[in-house]
Amino acid sequence: MKFFLDTSVLVAATRTLDQRHPASYRLVARCEPEHASCAAHTLAEVYANLTGMPPPHRFLPAQALLILEGIRSKFNCIALTAEEVFNTTQRAATLKLPGGIIYDALLLTCARKIGAEQIYTWNARHFQMVAPDLAERILTP
C-alpha cells in the first residue's frame, strides 16, 4: 500500500506537545521509502515551520536539519516539474481556489504522481476541496 503524508502530519509527529503527535508519530514510525512518500518541498515546509515557531517551541536550524534527515531516510521525496506545477496552478485557478490552498493542490499532485492509495493530512477539508475525486483516499492519522 502506498502512503503519502503531508507537512501537517510530519510536523505534528515531531512536536510532542501537539495533541496530534501520538497519532502522527505512530503513522510515521511505520513508514519506509518503499511504500511511503512526501513532497520534496515538504522538507522546506517542515524546516520553516519548526524553525519559525515562537520560543520556547522553536527548533534550532541544526535540530530541524536532523529531523529532515530522518524524513529523507523514511520517505520517498516526490518532486514536481515546472509543467506539473503550472498545470496544478491552472487547475486551481479553474476551480477558483485562492491563496495558500495551492500548496495543498501541489501536495495532491505529488500524491497522484506516485499513485498514493492513502493520503494522510490534518487538513482533510482543504484536500477534499482540491480533489473531491480522491476523497475516499484522504485520511487523518
How would you portray this structure in words?
This protein has 141 residues and is of the alpha/beta class. The chain has one domain: Rossmann fold, CATH 3.40.50.1010. The chain contains seven helices and five strands, in the order βααβααβααβαβ. The protein has helices spanning 7-14, 21-29, 42-52, 61-74, 82-94, 101-113, 124-130; strands at residues 3-5, 36-39, 76-78, 118-120, 138-139. Strands 3-2-1-4-5 form a five-stranded parallel beta sheet, sandwiched between helices. α7 (124-130) links the parallel β4 and β5. α3 runs antiparallel to α4 (61-74). The model has no long low-confidence stretch (mean pLDDT 96).
The assigned CATH architecture is 3-Layer(aba) Sandwich
Low-confidence stretches: none
Number of helical runs?
Answer: 7
Radius of gyration: 15 Å
Helix-strand string? EHHEHHEHHEHE
Q: Determine the CATH topology.
A: Rossmann fold
For the record, the CATH class is Alpha Beta
Q: Mean pLDDT, rounded to whole units?
A: 96
Major sheet size, sense and barrel closure: 5 strands, parallel
- End-to-end C-alpha gap: 15 Å
Total domains, how many?
Answer: 1
Widest beta sheet: strand line-up: 3-2-1-4-5
* Helix content percent band: 40-55%
Derived from helix and strand composition plus strand pairing, the structural class reads: alpha/beta
CATH superfamily: 5'-nuclease
- Taken as a percent bin, the fraction of beta residues is 5-15%
Cα shape: globular
The total count of strands amounts to 5
